[in-house]
TrEMBL record:
Major subcellular location class: secreted
Entry protein name: Protein Wnt
TM region positions: none
Keyword set, alphabetical order: Developmental protein, Disulfide bond, Extracellular matrix, Lipoprotein, Secreted, Signal, Wnt signaling pathway
Length: 350
């Protein structure tokens, strides 16, 4: 018997209306829930009825969904740490601001990452044996190499894709009429995130044999950490394609807005509207501005003071840091250090 840490009705309100990434709110609100009784799924029903059914049928999977939400939040913030838009607004989940609700590049990135994360978490959970409905399954059908054999326990990507898509896409698919362009963009970006994840499935090996001689190798198919997927998706974000939703033949499709531009690839991230530069606060556009952000004076990258402060300049201040220093090894077996104080210069945007 587990009791939700948050009263169900409150959570229901927090989750608000249906959209594809509202479930990221579970990063916080879902972590205290046991997810072992079907009434816990009522907490999700506020998002969309399909979630309720998916949840009830796969109650065990909810722990993976909650983990995926938390991993999406931290991977996004880490990946965008030095950028003008630094993903801090993802913490508002489930009541996002305009930067993530409209068809922006930033929204494209978060939708792709969230879709990849839920698939990733489920595929991993299958392999670790924590989901009764799936397993790490049999060895890949391709023949092993001359120097290794299949073994270990691979991540169950196919199961993760199946259930992950059901989870990430269902609220978009059922979000009613209107705004079909935005819906098509969300679906495309979610699928792109899953495709990038699938492409990253790789053969991983472990060596055996006398003192690590690697005379025997066992290999399996495994996924990299979500951080690696997030940086791959950040390159896609930087190269994202602006699209329109246009009637082509009998149905509407997403096509690059600039005519003559190459065709869309499955793994392209797509967006509908240009983002602000995020330099100055603008509430209707979801920009927080970069005033008081810490910047790096010697970097020419996005975290450098020039770019991050948008040419406004910066203020310097000194901060005292206390560090371990003059460490000595004592026989046997400890290290003793002194504490030193040092002044460091820091810079914040004007
Ligand atoms: C994944 O789980 C499904 C469902 O249990 C199973 O049929 C399959 O063999 C598993 N393994 C892989 C690699 O797909
Ligand atoms: C991210 O940006 C916001 C708005 O500029 C700022 O308030 C916040 O401190 C930043 N977060 C980090 C970790 O730098
Ligand atoms: C600032 O940027 C420089 C050059 O990219 C780098 O070597 C240095 O470690 C950075 N400093 C901090 C505090 O991140």
């Amino acid at each position: 018997m587990g009791h939700p840490a948050v009263p169900p009705t409150l959570l229901l309100c927090q989750l608000g209306l249906a959209a594809a990434i509202q479930w990221l709110g579970l990063a916080e609100s879902g972590s205290g829930v046991a997810w072992d009784e079907s009434h816990h799924c009522g907490l999700l029903a506020g998002v969309v009825p399909e979630h309720f059914q998916t949840c009830r049928r796969n109650l065990e999977v909810m722990h993976s969904v909650v983990r995926a939400a938390a991993e999406t939040v931290s991977a996004c913030q880490k990946t965008f740490a030095g950028m003008r838009w630094n993903c801090s607004s993802i913490l508002r989940a489930p009541s996002f601001g305009p930067d993530l609700l409209r068809g922006t590049r930033e929204s494209a990135f978060v939708h792709a990452l969230a879709a990849a994360a839920v698939t990733h978490a489920i595929a991993r959970a299958c392999a670790s044996g924590s989901l009764p409905l799936c397993s790490c399954g049999s060895a890949p059908s391709e023949a092993p190499g001359p120097d290794f054999r299949w073994g270990g326990c691979g991540d169950n990507l196919s199961y993760g894709l199946q259930l992950g898509a059901a989870f990430a896409d269902s609220p978009v698919k059922s979000s009613g009429p209107g705004r079909t362009a935005l819906r098509a963009v969300k679906l495309h970006n979610g699928a792109a995130g899953r495709q990038v994840l699938s492409d990253s499935l790789d053969t991983r090996c472990k060596c055996h044999g006398v003192s690590g001689s690697c005379s025997v190798k066992t290999c399996w198919k495994g996924l990299p950490g979500l951080g690696e997927i997030a940086s791959e998706l950040k390159s896609k974000y930087l190269a994202a394609v602006r699209v329109t939703h246009r009637l082509i033949g009998a149905r509407k499709q997403l096509v690059p807005k600039e005519t003559g531009f190459r065709l869309l690839k499955e793994t392209d991230l797509v967006y509908l509207i240009n983002s602000p530069d995020y330099c100055v606060p603008n509430v209707p556009l979801g920009s927080l501005g970069t005033q008081d952000r810490q910047c790096n004076k010697s970097s020419v990258g996005s975290e450098g003071c020039d770019l991050l402060c948008c040419g406004r300049g910066y203020n310097a201040y000194t901060e005292e840091v206390v560090e371990r220093c003059h460490c000595r090894y004592h026989w046997c077996c400890y290290v003793a250090c002194k504490r030193c104080r040092r002044l460091v210069e820091k810079y914040v945007c004007k």
